[in-house]
Structures are given as C-alpha cells and as structure tokens.
Task: structure prediction
Amino acid sequence: MRDDRSVVVAVCDDNQNIAQQLCDNFAPDAAVLPDLTAVLGFDVDAVVIASPTACHYQQISSVIESGRHVLAEKPLARTHEEIRQLIALSKRHPETVCVLGYQRRFWRNYQFLREQAQSRALGPIVAVTFVNCERWEPTIKGTWRDEPASNFGGFLGDAGSHKLDAILFTTGLQPHDLFARCQSGRSHVEVSASISGMFQGDIPFTLAFTGNAHHYYEELLIHCENGDLILRNDNVFIAQQNKLTQVDLPANESGPQSISNPVTGMLDVLTTDAENPSPFSSALPVLEMTQAVLDSSASKGLVELARPE
Result:
C-alpha cells in the first residue's frame, strides 16, 4: 500500500541482491546502499529497522542519535538493559518519533476491544483466555530465528511478542505471577508455551502458544462480568447469555492487509497531532513477561513479576 505522505529513497541490506529486489518490487527509484552508515549520510527523514533482533540496539541508537525518526520491527532489542537504554534514549530526544512495530495496536479490531474492555462496557474483566497456533517452526530452519542468541524466547519472543503486547494493550492489565512450560520441538529455540497465571487484581489468565501447528489460528477472549469480548482470527464478537453477536467493523482497517499499520501510524504522528500508539516503552512489559515465562519453564515453578513502575 502506498502513502503519498512518504517516499522510499534508499534501501540497504547486507545482501545487496535482496536490497535490489526490494527496490525493483517496491521502490524502483530508490538508491541501493551498502549499510546503515551510508543511509544516515543520505537525505532521509525517517528509517525503518527490519533487521535481525541482534542488530537492533546499535542500529536504532545510531538512527536516533542522527536525529532521524525511527520505526523499529519488534522485538525492540535482545535484553532488558538494551530496551531500557533505547527507551531512555528516545526520551532524551523528544523531537524524534520512535515507533515500535506492534501492528495490532493500529488495527480497529484491537482498538475496539481496548475501548470496550477498559471502559468496562461489559463490566470489569474477570478472566482472560488466549490461543495462538501457527506453522512457524518449518519457516525458521537455517535462519537467525533458530539461534537462541539471536531470537530470545523463540516463537513466543518473535511472532508471539505481538500477541503478548495485544493482550496487555487491550486489557490494560499487568501480570502478577505465572507458571509456564515451554518446548523446543525440533528446533534450537522455544516453539511452544503453555502459560497460566494471575493479572494484578486477582484476574486469572490462560495462554497457549503453538509454533509447530499446521495452520494459523488466533483467539482472544476477554471475559467480563456481563459478557465476553472475543476476537477470532481478526473478527470481533460479543457474547452474552449464550448468544454470539459479531461486531461490524471496517474490513480494511483490521488484519494483515489493514490500511492502518505502523507505517501509516508513524506518518499520522509526523503530520498531525496524533498520539503515538506504540512507543518504545511498550516493549518492556512484553520482554519482562517473556522472561518470566522462560524462567518459570526452566525452574518448573511459579514466577512473580515486579509491579509496574
């Protein structure tokens, strides 16, 4: 999807053939540059970071310090300390717009769930249930995603980070404690995770992530006192008294083909007074929850999370 508010002027990748293919397919007039240093010497206003996670900290830091706006693919960085430093750096440069690519924050279906849940339209939340399965494991063989040093948390830390963020974003809740078990399947990183715990306020949650399934499925159920808010493969429903009613939302504003996404969201922030819905600070709760899951699985015990600052 093109947006007249922006133009791609340069592309870089360690593999020049890949960079050239991107230009040929999406931006034939863009320059193919050898590295980020060359990009930052070019006339650009904003940079999109879509490299392996291990590269993020140094690359994002360089972009912010150069005075450019940045849209970073998730996860923001590999470690708690790196993420904290990037959040602090973004705050020291308030004139620089820093957006993290949690695309579900920009979709109308998740925004609707957030509005309903946090306004208590169906009463207070009493429980949260989530199921996600994907054919992810076969796609990572031979890539950096199958290397523990590069892909913290495996499926949960990679594709699953979008889902963890979406749960926290829609409910407004923070986990108090959790118990989890993870398995690696045939990979070197975690492929599945079964998680149960309590959000603050004694609200139970149950989450299941399966990265070695044979199809894609995603379902989020926010159980409230007077009804359930349900998201099933991007479709939203409200359940009350055993009756399921689908919510009519614009089809082109939700899901992978949505006209609302991190790129358009960043342009909204740059060209209007729009609030940044996905600041770098949103990365920290996701990392902390992912770390708690891995710690619980390793220790086979309950892990308590620190209260939010």
Observations:
- The CA atoms of residues 114 and 170 lie 4 Å apart.
